[in-house]
Amino acid sequence: MLILGFDDWDMEPSLMVNMRSFEENLALLAKLAVVEGVNLQPGQELILRADIGNSQLVHLVTAEAYRVGAKQVSVMYSDESVSVIRFEAGSDEAMSYAPNWIYDGMTRAIEENAAVLSISSANPSLLANIPPEKVAVSSRSQGVAAKRISEYIGGFQINWSIVGAASPAWAQQVFAGLPEEEALQMLWNAIFLTSRILEDDPIASWTAHCNRLAERMLWLNELKLDAVRFRGPGTDLHVGLIPGHRWIGGRGQSKNGVQCSPNIPTEEIFTMPHRERTHGVVRSTKPLSLRGQIVSGIEVTFENGLVTQAKAARGEETLQRLIQTDEGSGRLGEIALVPNSSAVSQSGVLFLNTLYDENAASHIALGSAIGENYPGHDDLTDEQRLTAGVNESLIHVDWMIGSSEIDVDGIHADGTSTPLMRAGEWVPS
């Protein structure tokens, strides 16, 4: 596992700071999350999910939401310490229980057009000392209870977004060996940088960035590819795409007519694989924080879309239990292309948080497909989706397979190919 310390930070000094105070940058992050992330509309309710340690950012987001006309901001706080206590002291019944009344309430709110914003700050190793089987049981029960919510979010039923916030436990794993306050400051700087908050005009910079992603997305859609092939050290993976797939990047159009930026930061352009058309071998290029545990050195073999062999240098049991969640958890639901020159990659920081690390490298996702990648998805029955090649699962877990050593080609139906990336960078479109 690679943990970067102070001497490993390789950003240009001019990119690490600006003339604004921390409080001013934090307020700009809150504004970006509300006006560009969820793009909250006047009269709309906002469900805000965050750890209790992020109350300062929660207060700023709440104020910004009311400034743009929110009719209600409903904050749902979590507490990592309480989560650990549950796993350490809870019974088997507690592990398999999910409070359906909470999920039912969120489902109803989304059906009534509430927007959702999540603030991500999880300790990557929160559950490192908890047996993987207990974590797997709990994750499955929560996944079943949240299935409808996941379908709404993945299908862009409403406008939603995720934004990061630094926490002491997370910061000290990313910047190991530094004093807590210094590590926390370093992580906040990295978050501000990769979210474009350190720019003179963060909102304008974000808009320009999303427009560039849209141009690349248009190019990929015009290619009408049949498959994508990844090649590099330990990787030769052929991923067949679902016919009629659509590439998406930057912003997304929700079913309620609101355009939003689901991830802050965002560098990816992604689409839907066919659930039965992936074959070959693939090796991870970055560690993965999975269910509160670190998994690294992943090596997986696919045949006819299904994982037939999986191993990891660290956290292999956690990986195996993830793949065994259900019939679709050993198949792909997403592939995403990210250049090595992305802002997240060039920060030189290994975040140990998928929101960031997936935007540093091309990646694949085990589990459920994202309906927005397949026009007409919502009009099909479950059986019709399965026949078409759409993967269904209780999980959706991204892990990174891209680097400066990976080449990516688009494969056409006639067998010819178009270079998409060379040495981890986009080819000219």
Feature tags:
429 residues, alpha+beta
Summarize the structure.
The chain is of the alpha+beta class and 429 residues long. The chain has helices at residues 13-16, 22-38, 55-67, 80-89, 92-96, 100-111, 132-145, 147-154, 168-174, 180-194, 202-223, 316-323, 343-346, 354-357, 382-388, and strands spanning 45-51, 72-78, 115-120, 160-164, 227-232, 235-241, 248-249, 252-253, 259-260, 263-264, 269-271, 273-283, 288-290, 293-295, 299-303, 306-311, 332-337, 363-367, 396-400, 407-411, 417-422, 425-426.
Notes on the structure:
The structure is a single chain. The protein has 429 residues and is of the alpha+beta class. It has helices at 13-16, 22-38, 55-67, 80-89, 92-96, 100-111, 132-145, 147-154, 168-174, 180-194, 202-223, 316-323, 343-346, 354-357, 382-388; strands spanning 45-51, 72-78, 115-120, 160-164, 227-232, 235-241, 248-249, 252-253, 259-260, 263-264, 269-271, 273-283, 288-290, 293-295, 299-303, 306-311, 332-337, 363-367, 396-400, 407-411, 417-422, 425-426. A hairpin with a 2-residue loop joins strand 5 (227-232) and strand 6 (235-241). Helix 2 (22-38) crosses helix 3 (55-67) and helix 9 (168-174) packs across helix 10 (180-194).
How many helices? The count is 15
Strand order across the largest sheet: 16-15-12-6-5-20-21-22
In the predicted model, the low-confidence regions spanning at least 5 consecutive residues are 1-16
Task: Please give the largest β-sheet.
Answer: 8 strands, antiparallel
Helix content: 25-40%
The best one-word shape is globular
Overall mean confidence score, pLDDT: 92
**Percent of residues in β-strands:** 15-25%
Structural class: alpha+beta
E-strand count = 22
Assembly state? single chain
- Radius of gyration of CA atoms, rounded to a whole number: 20 Å
Distance from first to last alpha carbon: 35 Å
